[in-house]
């Protein structure tokens, strides 16, 4: 591990000042510390923000939900408002990691976590995300777990966060605080596809701090849930996953929110699936037909062609689970 300077701050003003000087923010440290130990990351200054007052979960005036960036994964998953309004978030968090990690890791850190691509974490391998211009070893290497959606010639790594899939489905917004004041970004705009600059993963300005994630109000009743398919039952990243939220009134689907994980370079919203559902009556035939559209635009690699059908089956199963049988 490279030498670094550690500083702990107790106010957002001090945090922003340290960020302007090039400091890297850390709270739970469950991702950054690992990457520093492996030699992938070597920040000169670590800024501990764990003491900032950003650890509240509260309902918004319009019936949405605001989750502070420093709320732990465990706290968010167990919070009564989260479980009651958006169970898809609780389920995604509970399927994400061990209890020990969920107690430490924060919501802000979770959505900022970097890929689990083995080539990214192997400092001897070519990786444009870690070393821009060096190449992408995964494209011609063993790419079973890599992306079939949103990839580029520069990078085919998937985004690892489960709760980010739920946030993408629910069209959450990320609240930011920086040297130029406050701003908010849609979740779709916050996480960036690799394109020709895979090393830039979020649309953060230098020194900006995540303060909260807000889920907008959605029509009630809203049924939702998260399904994760992986090689083993526990402590494994998704091969495919699906976050689904449906508003059904009068026997008709009035609102549909669907996103997939484990298959895209970012959590992958599925508008074609959503459009196929809205205005229709729930049925097994509808779930199957809508799920067929989940892999539209997929570009599988040599070892992950199975993900096309697996994604369709995952989405179909979760639509049926949330929406019920005909």
Automatic annotation (TrEMBL):
SUPFAM superfamilies named among the record's database cross-references: CO dehydrogenase flavoprotein C-terminal domain-like (SSF55447), FAD-binding/transporter-associated domain-like (SSF56176)
A Pfam family that the UniProt record links to this protein: CO_deh_flav_C
Gene Ontology MF: a single term: oxidoreductase activity
UniProt cross-references to InterPro entries, sorted A to Z: CO_DH_flav_C (IPR005107), CO_DH_flav_C_dom_sf (IPR036683), Diverse_Substr_Oxidored (IPR051312), FAD-bd_PCMH (IPR016166), FAD-bd_PCMH-like_sf (IPR036318), FAD-bd_PCMH_sub1 (IPR016167), FAD-bd_PCMH_sub2 (IPR016169), Mopterin_DH_FAD-bd (IPR002346)
Domain named FAD-binding PCMH-type: residues: 1-220
Keywords, alphabetical: Oxidoreductase
Domain of life: Bacteria
Record PANTHER family: OXIDOREDUCTASE (PTHR42659:SF1), XANTHINE DEHYDROGENASE SUBUNIT C-RELATED (PTHR42659)
Protein name listed in UniProt: Xanthine dehydrogenase family protein subunit M
Species of the source: Streptomyces acidicola
């Amino acid at each position: 591990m490279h030498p670094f300077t550690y500083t702990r701050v107790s106010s957002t003003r001090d945090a922003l000042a340290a960020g302007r000087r090039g400091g890297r923010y850390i709270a739970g440290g469950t991702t950054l510390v690992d990457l520093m130990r492996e030699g992938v990351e070597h920040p000169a200054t670590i800024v501990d923000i764990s003491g900032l007052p950003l650890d509240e979960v509260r309902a918004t005036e319009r019936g949405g939900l605001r989750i502070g960036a420093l709320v732990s994964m465990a706290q968010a998953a167990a919070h009564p408002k989260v479980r009651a309004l958006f169970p898809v978030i609780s389920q995604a968090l509970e399927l994400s990691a061990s209890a020990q990690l969920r107690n430490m890791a924060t919501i802000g850190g979770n959505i900022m976590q970097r890929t689990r691509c083995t080539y990214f974490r192997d400092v001897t391998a070519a990786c444009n995300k870690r070393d821009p211009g060096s190449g992408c070893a995964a494209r011609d290497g063993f790419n079973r777990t890599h992306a079939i959606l949103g990839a580029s010639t520069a990078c085919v790594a998937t985004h690892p966060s489960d709760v980010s899939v739920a946030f993408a489905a629910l069209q959450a917004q990320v609240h930011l605080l920086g040297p130029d004041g406050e701003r908010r970004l849609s979740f779709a705009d916050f996480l960036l596809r690799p394109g020709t600059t895979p090393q830039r993963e979020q649309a953060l300005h230098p020194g900006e701090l995540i303060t909260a994630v807000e889920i907008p109000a959605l029509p009630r009743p809203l049924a939702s849930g998260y399904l994760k398919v992986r090689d083993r039952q526990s402590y494994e990243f998704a091969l495919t996953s699906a976050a689904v939220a449906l508003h059904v009134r009068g026997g008709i689907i009035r609102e549909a929110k669907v996103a997939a994980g484990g298959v895209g370079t970012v959590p992958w919203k599925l508008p074609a699936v959503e459009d196929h559902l809205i205005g229709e009556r729930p049925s097994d035939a509808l779930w199957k037909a809508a799920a067929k559209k989940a892999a539209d635009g997929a570009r599988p690699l040599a070892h992950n062609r199975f993900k096309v059908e697996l994604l369709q089956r995952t989405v179909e199963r979760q639509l049926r689970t949330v929406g019920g049988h005909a």
